[in-house]
Amino acid sequence: MNHPKVLVLRAAGVNCELETAGAFAAVGGKPELVHISELRGGKKRLMDYAVLAIPGGFSYGDDVGAGKVLANQIRHTLTDLRQFVRLGRPVIGICNGFQALVKSGILPHSNACDQTASFTVNDSGRFEARWTHLRLNIQSSCLFFKGLPEMIELPVAHGEGKLVLKSPRHLEDLKKNKSIALQYVTEDGKLLGYPHNPNGSIFNIAGLTNPEGNVLGLMPHPERFVAVQQHPNWTRQTYRKQAIGLEMFRNAVIHAR
Amino acid sequence: MSSSVAEHPAASDDFSIVGKSVKELRALGDHRHLSLNDAEWAAVQAHFKLLKREPSLAEIETIAQTWSEHCKHKIFTSPIRYTEGRKTRTIKNLFQETIVAATEALQKPWCLSVFEDNAGVISFGKKWALAFKAETHNPPSALEPYGGAATGVGGVVRDILGCGLGAKPVLNTDVFCFGRPDYKGFLPEGAHHPVRTLRGVVAGVRDYGNRMGIPTAGGGIWFDDDYRLNPLVFCGTVGLLPQWAVKKEVKPGDLIVAAGGRTGRDGLHGATFSSAVLGADAPSSAVQIGHAIIEKRVLDALLRARDRRLYRSVTDCGAGGFSSAVGELAARCGARVRLEAAPLKVSDLESWEIWLSESQERMVLAVPAKNLKALEAVFAAEGCETAVIGEFTRTGRLEVLHHANAVVDLDMKFLHKGLPRIEREAVWNAPSATKPSGGADKKLSQALKEAVGHLNVCSREWVIRQYDHEVQGGTVIKPLQGVRHDGPGDACVIWPHTATGDMDDFSGFSVAHGLNPEYGRFDPYWMALACVDEALRNLTCVGADPSRAALLDNFCWASPEDPKQLGALVRAAEGCRDAAKGFAAPFISGKDSLYNQSKDEKGRELPIPGTLLISAIATIPDTRKALTMDFKGPGNALYLIGRTNDEMGGSLYHRLLGRAGGEVPKVCPVTALDGFKSLHAAILKGLVLSAHDLSDGGLAVAATEMGFSGEFGCLVDLDEMPRDPRIYSNETLLFSESPSRILIEIKPEDEGSFLRHFGKAAKAAAVRRIGQTTANPIFKVVGLDGSTILEESLRELKEGWQKTLPAMLA
After folding, report:
1. Which end of chain B is least crowded, N or C, by CB within 10 Å?
2. Does B525 contact chain A (CB < 8 Å)?
C-alpha cells in the first residue's frame, strides 16, 4: 500500500499539529511535522509531499490579525504553493490554517492570488468553542467531501472566525464558482443566526474550496472528530453516527495515492 | 573563581545589617518588601556576623525569596502549639504529620514521585506517567486580574514542563472564588469590583490556555462576598511524560542554560509579596507580564530536546526567578552564575534585579557540555532563545557574579536549612451543636427555582465556552453535557493519545474538584472530608476508577499569625489526612497561600473564609465506558446510592432561607468508598446509563440537572430514599447535602443484575430505587405522605439556571 507523504506545517503558536497528523496517520497517510523554518532554510521542500495541511492554533499569537503573520510567511516561504495547488495536490487549512490560506490569497481562488476575503472578531465578541451543524455543498467538486453525507457536525473554537468579503459581488462569484464548501446551519438545515452561525460569517460560510476542489479551508475542526467518542453525544443511546472528520482526511489520502 | 575577583560581594552593593536594631531591620524589610520576620532577621544577622562582613543587596534578596512563605511553606512545616478545647499538644511539622503521613501510610506503587518535584507524578499504563499540579495566583489576580490569571496559567504550565525531564500539558483546570457579581457595597481604594475581577481572570485564563493549545476542561467558581478583596485563582495542569523521564539529576560540571523569555523588571518581589497581607501599597512591578507564544515555543523545543536526552535536569523560573530555579537545582552541589550572560529585555537592570526577576516563560536546564551545540540547535529551530549563564559546581556554595563582581556568595546549607523555625499558637474550639434557627420556610417550587438559579449552582456556560476545551482532540467527556451540550458535567475525561501517538489505546484519565468553604465555617475538618468525597464521587460519576485516585491539596487561608485561623488550618489539614487514609487516596502534591486578608472599606481586616481545594485525578481503563450525567431515555429506573441524613448546616437551602446552625455533613470514608467502588464496577459492566453526584442543593438540584440536560422528566418518591428514619421533612430529603450520594439511571431490564451486583449494600438499604424517568420534561416529586408535593417544568427550571450569570455580567 502506498502511503502518501503529508506535510503538516508547524510554526510558533500552531497547536493542532499532533491531532492533525494523527488523523492522516489513521487513514494511511505518512504525516511529517515540518517547521516553517525548515522550509525557509531549504532543508525540506514542499514539492516532495503529496498533501499539505495547515493546522489550527494561534500562529505567532495571532498578533496583527488571526493568521496574518503566517500568511505572509506562506507567501514568502512557500513560494511553490501555487504550483502545488495547480498540480491538483490536496491542501487543507483548518481554523488558523484557513485564516492563513485566505490572508495569503489562496482562498477564495483568484488568478492573481489577490486577497478578496478576511476574518474579523466573532459577533459575540468572544472566543467560543462549540459544536456546529454544517451543510456540505455537494455541488462543489471538493475532493475532501467525496461520499460524505450532506449534513454533518464538527466543533469550532475561535475568536476571529467571522468571514467577510471585499465586496458583495464576491459572494456571487463564490456561489457561481461553487467555492462555498460548507455552511453553518441548524439541525434541520436552515441558515439562521447565532449560536447556529457561531461567528456571524457572511452567508453562514464555514469553509471555502477552490473551483478545482483540491484546496479546502474551514473554521470547524475535522481533526477533532476522528473517533466516535469525540462527539458530545456519543454516550446517548440515540447516537449512531460515524466520526465524519476522519473521512475528510481519508479522501485526501485516497486522492493522493 | 578567578583570582581577580573579590572574595566577597563588593562593598558598593553592601546592605548593612550587622549591629542594626530589630526596629531598623523591620523598616528596612518593609521598605524593600522582603517579608522577613524578626527571628529570620536575627538568623541572617548572626550568619553575617560570623562571616565578619555585610551582605550584599542581592544576598539579602536571595535569602528573603528562598525563605518566603511562597517558596518554603514555613507555616506548614514549623512547630505549632495546638489547643483544642482543654487539650494542648505540639505539632512538629503539620505538613509531615498530616498530608505526607497519609501518603506514606498508603504506599501506592503507582505513585512515582510525590512532594519532591514541581508536580506529583502517577503512572499511566506501563510506559507513561501523569504529572499533576495546581497552584494559586491570588495577589497578582487581585491587583491585575487579566495579567495575574494569565501568568497563573503560565506558571503552573511551566511547573509541568519542569516536572521530571518535562511533561506535555494535556489538560488545564481552573477554579475561582470571587465576591458576588451583584455586590453593591463600597470597596476600599485599589480593590476591583468582583465583575471586573471575574471578567479579567476568565479572559486571562482563556487567552493563555487557548494560545498554548491546552484544553481547559475542568474547574468551578464559588461566589461569596468575603472574597471580594482577596479573590482566589487556582490554576491546575496535567502533563503526560514517559516513565523514563520522571527522574532527574544535576551533575557538577553541567552547564546552567537559561531558555525561553528574556529577563526584565517585571515581577520583582512576587515571592515575598505573596507572603504579605495585600493592601493599597502593593508594588505594581510584582505582577509579571505573560506571553503565551514564547511559552509555546519553549514547550515545543523542550520536549524535542528531552526526547533526544540532551539535558539532565530542568526546572522552571517561577517565584524568585533565577535565584529560586538555580538555587533549587544546585541545592545538593553548588553553582556559579554569570549574570551578564542572561539575555535581558532592558539593559539597565541591576544585578539583584536580573537575579530575582520573575519575568515569565523562562526555564533553567542542566546540560552536559558535550550536548550544548545540539541543544542550542533544537531551541533555535523553534525560535527560542538560550544562553549559558554558568555551571554547576561541587563547592556547596551559590556564587553569582556580574561583570566579574561577586554579588552573591552564600553557603547552600545556610540558604536552604538556615531558616529559623518559630513555634506558633493555634486554637480550635469546636462550635457547640445548635438547632437550625431563623429564616422562614419557602414554597418548595420557589425554593427549587432559587436553588437552581443560585450563583453557586447556575450554569457556567458563559465561562466554559470561552475556553478551547477540545484542542488536542482528547476531551471525550466534555465539561458541558447533554442533548444540547449545555448541562453541568461532573468532570471531564481526557483521552490523551494524540500525545502518545497510540490511537488504539483507549485508556484515559479524569480530573475533578471538591470545594465548599461554607462547611469550613462550621468545621474545617468536615469541610476537608466533604471536599475529598466530592472530588472522588465526581470522578466516579464519569467512570473513573475511585481506587486509582490521587489528590492535590490547595489551602488558601487568612493570616496564620491569628491563632484561631491557624487552629482552623490545623483542623483542615487533619481532615485531609483522615480523608486520604479513609479513601485510600494519596496526596501527591499541594500548595498553600496564606495571608489572604485585606482592610475593608471601613478599615477592618476582612479575612477570606478558610478555603481548601481538593483536586483529584484518576485513571480510566477504557474511556469508551465513560458516562455523562444527562438522562438517556424515558421509563428508566432511578437509583440513589448513599444515605440521606439530617445535616443541613452550611447547605445551600439554609443559605436561601437565611437559616443558621444545624449539623455540617459528615463523611464516612469507608462506606463511601464501598459505594463508589461498586458503582465503578457496575459502570464497567455497562449497567449504568447516567450518573450525577448530589452536592449543593442535594437531590432536588441533581435530579433537575439530569432532567433538563437529557430533556426527559422524572418522578421521584421521597419515601423510597435510603435515609435516617428520623427525617420527617420533605425539604430535608430534597435539599440535604449528605455526602457520598450519587443518583443513577438504569435500564429496567438491567435492574436485576444491578441489584445482584450491589448485593449486600442493596440489602442494607444504602442503594434504593427512588423513581423513574419520564418522557414529559417535568420534575415530579411524591412526598412522605404520598401526595405530589412538587411538579415543575424542567424547561423553565433550565431557563432560570441559565440566565443568572449572563444577567449579572450584562
Report:
1. C
2. no
Give the Cα separation of B51 and B45 in Å (integer).
10
CA B317 vs. chain centroid, Å, equals: 19
Taking alpha carbons only, the member of B202, B247, B154 closest to residue B461 is: B202
Whole-number pLDDT of residue B154 = 94
Q: Which residues of A touch B475 (CB under 8 A)?
A: 230
Q: Is A125 exposed, middle or buried (0-12, 13-18, 19+ CB in 10 A)?
A: exposed
Q: State the average pLDDT over residues A101-112.
A: 91
Query: Helices marked H in B427-477 — which ranges?
Result: 444-452, 461-464
CB contact under 8 A, B213 and A16: yes
- Residue A180 β-bridge partners: A208
Closest CA to B534 of B626, B672, B653: B672
Burial class (CB in 10 A: 0-12, 13-18, 19+), B115: middle
Residues 158-217 of A with CB under 8 A from B: none
Domain B1-67+248-421 annotated CATH 2.60.40.1120: no
Looking at this protein, which amino acid is placed at residue B126?
A: K
Average pLDDT, chain B: 93
Q: Do B470 and A221 touch (CB under 8 A)?
A: yes
Nearest CB among A126, A227, A235 relative to B627 is that of A235
Of A58, A234, A237, the CB nearest to B293: A58
The CB-based long-range contact list for B460-466 (8 Å cut-off, 24+ gap) reads: B460/B220, B460/B221, B460/B488, B460/B805, B461/B486, B461/B802, B461/B805, B462/B805, B462/B806, B462/B809, B463/B202, B463/B221, B463/B805, B465/A126, B465/A128, B465/A129, B465/A130, B466/A126, B466/A127, B466/A128, B466/A129, B466/B202, B466/B203, B466/B206
User: What pLDDT, on the 0 to 100 scale, is given for residue B1?
Assistant: 35
- Per-residue buried b or exposed e for B494-512, using 16+ beta carbons within 10 Å of the residue's own CB: bbbbbbbeebebbbbbbbb
Least CB–CB distance from A128: residue in B465, B473, B483: B465
Nearest to A12 among B297, B475, B495 (CB): B297
CATH of A5-256, one of 3.50.50.60, 3.40.1230.10, 3.40.50.880, 3.90.950.20: 3.40.50.880
Amino acid at A27: V
Structural domain boundaries of chain B? Answer: 1-67+248-421
For the segment B525-557, what is each residue's pLDDT rounded down to a tens digit? 999 999 999 999 999 999 999 999 999 999 999
Q: What is the pLDDT of residues B478-512, one digit of tens each?
A: 999 999 999 999 999 999 998 998 889 999 999 99
Task: Verify whether the Cβ–Cβ distance B471 to A128 is below 8 Å.
Answer: no
C-alpha cell at B170: 494535556
pLDDT in tens, B568-580: 999 999 999 999 9
For residue A119, what are the CA distances in angstroms to A163, A184, A207, B211, B409?
5, 16, 12, 18, 56
Q: Which residues of B touch A60 (CB under 8 A)?
A: 293
Helix segments in A78-167, DSSP class H = 81-86, 96-103
The segment with the largest mean pLDDT, out of A215-219, A238-242, B407-411, is A215-219
State yes or no: pLDDT of B284 exceeds 70: no
Query: For residue A113, what pLDDT band results from cuts at 50, 70 and 90?
Result: confident
Among candidate residues B718, B533, B738, the one with its CA nearest the CA of residue B643: B738
Is the Cβ pair B473, A126 closer than 8 Å? no
**pLDDT tens column, B107-147:** 999 999 999 999 999 999 999 999 999 999 998 899 899 99
Locus of grid cell 475525561: B493
Chain B hits for A127, CB-CB cut-off 8 Å, are: 206-207, 210, 466, 468
Mean pLDDT computed over B24-45: 88
Tell me which DSSP letter residue B433 carries: P
Contact check, Cβ <8 Å, B292/A58: yes
